[in-house]
Amino acid sequence: TSNIYKRTSYFLSYFDMRVVCYKKKLMRVCVILKQIPEDGWPDHALELFLSWLACHDTNNRVDITTVGAGEREGRVVCSLVRKLHC
Q1: How far apart are CA 80 and CA 35, in angstroms?
Q2: Which GO terms fall under molecular function for this chain's record (predicted)?
């Protein structure tokens, strides 16, 4: 059974690596090429992208006073934003 586990864990790690590469490719098209993708993104890729953007948002910095403007409006319109903030 240990041999099966090794093969399964290798496959899962390879699969996880491919998923991460796919998400990075989506982000690269949007950020570096400054193009909106033709096809819609899956929710997990949108969550990763929004988390990445939030890391660069000055409202999320600990060393300054936050403003918090715009979050309420986003929660009303988009269920994905509501999920991330609630």
Answers
A1: 21
A2: O-phosphoseryl-tRNA(Sec) selenium transferase activity; tRNA binding
Do the beta carbons of residue 7 and residue 1 sit within 8 Å? no
Give the range of the structural domain holding residue 27, as residue numbers without chain letter.
2-59+70-85
| Cβ atoms within 10 Å of 29's Cβ, excluding its own | 14
Structure confidence by residue, pLDDT tens digits, 14-37: 666 776 777 777 777 777 777 777
If DSSP states are collapsed to H, E and C, what string results for the chain? CHHHHHHHHHHHHHHHHHHHHHHHHHHHHHHCCCCCCCCCCCHHHHHHHHHHHHHCCHHHCCCCCCCCCCHHHHHHHCHHHHHHHC
Give me the number of domains the chain comprises: 1
